[in-house]
Each structure stands twice: as structure tokens, then as C-alpha cells.
Design brief:
The protein is α+β, with helices and mostly antiparallel strands and 139 residues long. It has 2 helices and 6 strands, in the order H-E-E-H-E-E-E-E. The protein has a 6-stranded antiparallel β-sheet. A hairpin with a 5-residue loop joins strand 5 and strand 6 (121-133). The relative contact order is 0.21.
Length: 139
């Protein structure tokens, strides 16, 4: 596992909104681990995280994996994102793992998973994305 890379110091407003905290990146498996603490406004009427917002967690962790695997150079521009909801996502800190399955010049294949504090799978996503240069700050 690597030390905290430089790119984690530049967090997006959406990552901050989701209560995102970078945990680690494993270059051997191209896997990023991030924890999220959903804010109260993310709650559905059932008292769990609303489904569309779960997609945000998965999208962000997959993007983090691509960003880390390219030394902070590339972000994904999603062409598709498929999500499977396995269990309700509780309104507590959850762990996400994002992985670069394959990175080509034009297309990246990404995977993401969310886990509760007991390690139970909550949701899973796959994405096909175009790797794009990180925009300049303020753009």
C-alpha cells in the first residue's frame, strides 16, 4: 500500500458533500479504498441512503481508482454505469472499494463496491468510461 498520494489533497466539492475520506490505494490491484459518512440529508424515507446517492459513492470511488492509477492525471467520463443494490445502505460510515479493471487509451473499465462496518456487500457497480485529463482548478 502506498502513502497518501498528492491527488487526495485536491478533493471535489461532491466528494466533500458525501463525507468522503481517502483511506488507501493499492497499485498492485489498482484498488482505491474510501470511506463515506453520509450526511443526514442523504436519508430516504426508509432511513437508509437514497439509491441515487449510492450511485454517487460508487461513481466517486471508481473515479478515485482511475485517478490514483494514473498518478493524478486522468478522470473518468462515464459512458455507462450499472448498479446492483444488494442491501439497504445504512446512515453510518461505509467503506467503498474502486478498481480499474482495464485501462486503454480510449476506454477504461471500472468496478466499485460498498461495504457496511461488518464487511457485508451493500452495492456493486461497473462503469465504462473515457479517461480524460483532469481539468484545471476553477474550470
Amino acid at each position: 500500500m502506498s502513502d497518501v498520494p498528492n491527488f487526495t489533497k485536491r478533493r471535489s466539492p461532491s466528494a466533500e458533500l458525501m463525507g468522503s475520506a481517502f483511506v488507501s490505494y493499492d497499485p498492485d490491484t489498482k484498488t482505491a479504498t474510501v470511506q463515506y459518512t453520509p450526511p443526514p440529508s442523504f436519508a430516504s424515507p426508509r432511513g437508509a441512503v437514497q439509491g441515487g446517492l449510492i450511485g454517487g459513492f460508487l461513481d466517486e470511488v471508481m473515479g478515485t481508482a482511475l485517478l490514483a492509477s494514473t498518478d493524478g492525471e486522468l478522470l473518468p467520463l462515464n459512458l455507462d454505469c450499472n448498479i446492483s443494490f444488494v442491501r439497504m445502505v445504512p446512515m453510518e460510515t461505509i467503506t467503498a472499494k474502486g478498481r480499474v479493471v482495464r485501462l486503454g487509451r480510449r476506454i477504461a473499465f471500472l468496478e466499485g463496491e460498498l461495504f457496511d462496518k461488518n464487511g457485508n456487500l451493500l452495492a456493486r457497480a461497473t462503469s465504462t468510461a473515457m479517461p480524460t485529463a483532469v481539468p484545471e482548478r476553477g474550470v
